[in-house]
Amino acid sequence: MRLFMVTATLVLWAASANAQTESGHGFATGNDLLRSCTDPRDASIGICSGYLQGVLDVQTILRDPNGSCLPKGTEISQVRDAVINYLKANPAVHSQQASFLVITATAQNWVCPPMPPFK
User: Fold this and answer.
1) CA separation for the pair 95, 63 (Å, rounded)
2) Domains of the chain, earliest start first
C-alpha cells in the first residue's frame, strides 16, 4: 500500500510539475523542487515530502553505494530541510534534475558506510 501511495504521489507531482517545469523535458528541476518545498501551503509540503520519499525509496532499492544512508528515525522534515539548505547554498545547480539533487543533498548529510565486498 505504501508503494502505491508513493507512486501515486510521484505521478501527481510529476503531472503538476510537468506543466510548470522550466526544463522543458518534463523532469522536475531544483527550482521546481525548491518552489514546492518552501511553499507554506499544506498541499505543497505534501507534494514535496512525497517526492522526497519516493526518491529515497528508489535509492534504497537501488542502494547507491555513494548515496545517503538515513538513520532510523530520520523524519521527512529533516530531509526536506537538508534539501532546501543544499538548494539555497547552491543556486548554480537549480536547473539540474530534482531527483539527482535530492540524492546529492542527502548524501552530504548522511553518508553510507562502505559496502562489504562481494564474495
Assistant:
1) 25
2) 2-109 (1.10.890)
Amino acid at 118: F
Question: Which pairs count as long-range contacts for 97-102, CB under 8 Å and 24+ apart, including other chains?
Answer: 97/23, 97/27, 97/28, 97/29, 98/27, 98/28, 98/29, 98/30, 98/32, 98/33, 98/51, 98/55, 99/27, 99/28, 99/55, 99/58, 101/30, 101/33, 102/33, 102/51, 102/52, 102/55, 102/56
Q: Which residues pair with 29 in a beta bridge?
A: 97
User: 46-60 pLDDT, tens per residue?
Assistant: 999 999 999 888 877
Helices of type H across 39-97: 42-62, 76-89
Cα separation, 119 vs 117, whole angstroms: 6
pTM: 0.68
Gyration radius (Cα) of the chain, Å: 14
Buried b vs exposed e over 29-49: b needs ≥16 C-beta within 10 Å? bbbbbbbbbeeeeeebbebbb
